[in-house]
Amino acid sequence: MKNSCVIILSILFLVFSMDSFSQKIGQSKSEIKSKSDSGDHHSGKRSHSSSGYDGGDNSFGNLIASGIIQGFMFVTYYAAIGDYELEDHLRSHLTNYPFYNGKSGNYEHPDAVPVPIKYLRFDLENQFLNNNQNLFGNHLKLKIRPMQYFYLQGDFFQLVEQDKWTRAHSNLSLFNFNLCYDRFRFENFNFGWTVGVNYIGNEINEAGFSYGLNAELFIAKNVSIYSSAKWSSINKAVVNEFQIQPKYHIGRFFVSFGYEHLKIGKPYFDFISMGGGIYL
Fold first, then answer.
1. How far is CA 56 from CA 53, 60, 67, 68, in A?
2. Cβ-proximal residues to 31 (8 Å cutoff; 6+ apart), any chain
3. Is residue 52 part of a domain?
4. Is the pLDDT of residue 18 over 60?
5. Of 183, 128, 133, 180, which Cα lies nearest the Cα of 161?
6. 45 occurs within a structural domain
7. What is the domain extent for residue 193?
């Protein structure tokens, strides 16, 4: 197992090292900024023609339309939120930390303990990101879980790129602020969605709407695999994120390594990540 992980990391490092040494950060920033400065908003006028039909009792058609809308809203609500009367896993309790009892992940069955054992939890982690000697970064993440029903998440990416000729540095700061909801809350698996905003600092100072999905699978004692994806755009430039991260849990702490992919404008950034975290 250890040899396999070393081989995988070595292959990923070699692949990332073959990336173009062009200034990706500068390209991303200039692309987003240029789209912001262009500000081309064409306000075309649309002509509305009359159908020529002005009469008739349309109550039956309105009734059908209303039924379709209500049905769509019900299906959407059920898909996103769930039915707390029929789905026991939605009442699962938040744990103190994964594997606190040797088997449960982020949640445990409501019948496992007489009362919820945790009402507030903070998940803090930091990942060092490496692509090659000229491109690296850091990913700081905080999850605030006030209860088992939802949580808040903040992410801060700091990317640094060095020009191999001039040795000058370019920096890019990316922030995420999200409301998160786990649609499925089982002892060994959770899956949910996120919605919020992201923001690029430096001299860009622009924000955009974001949405995403995330999941964590607790596959063996003290071992889990976390994955997430977020999609967004800032000034019509794509800002997407993807992460997959195996974790090894040691009490309230964990260590991890994995892969993170960012696409900011046309350039993309692939990193090997290594770090850890704590549950408070």
1. 9, 11, 20, 21
2. 237, 265, 266, 267
3. no
4. no
5. 133
6. no
7. 12-36+79-279
Confirm whether 165 is domain-assigned. Answer: yes
User: Where is average pLDDT lowest: 115-124, 213-222, 242-251, 262-271?
Assistant: 115-124
Burial class (CB in 10 A: 0-12, 13-18, 19+), 168: exposed
Contact status, residue 122 vs residue 280, Cβ threshold 8 Å: yes
Q: How many domains does the chain fold into?
A: 1
The 10s digit of each residue's pLDDT in 254-272 is: 999 999 999 999 999 999 9
Using the Cα atoms of residue 13, residue 18, residue 21 and residue 22 in order, give the sign of their dihedral: negative
Q: Taking all residues of the chain, what is their mean pLDDT, rounded to a whole number?
A: 84
User: What is the predicted pLDDT for the residue at 34?
Assistant: 75
Please give, one letter per residue, the 3-state secondary structure of the chain.
CHHHHHHHHHHHHHHHHCCCCCCHHHHHHHHHHHHHHHCCCCCCCCCCCCCCCCCCCCHHHHHHHHHHHHHHHHHHHHHHCCCCCCCHHHHCEECCCCCCCCCCCCEECCCCCCCCCCCCEEEEEEEEEEEECCEEEEEEEEEEECCCCCEEEEEEEEEEEECCCCCCEEEEEEEEEEEEEEEEECCCEEEEEEEEEEEECCCCCEEEEEEEEEEEEEEECCEEEEEEEEEEEECCEEEEEEEEEEEEEECCEEEEEEEEEEEECCCEEEEEEEEEEEEC
Q: Is residue 156 part of a domain?
A: yes
CATH number, domain containing residue 157:
2.40.160
Distances (CA, A) of 238 to 61, 190, 198, 233: 40, 28, 12, 4
Q: What is the mean pLDDT of residues 231-251?
A: 96
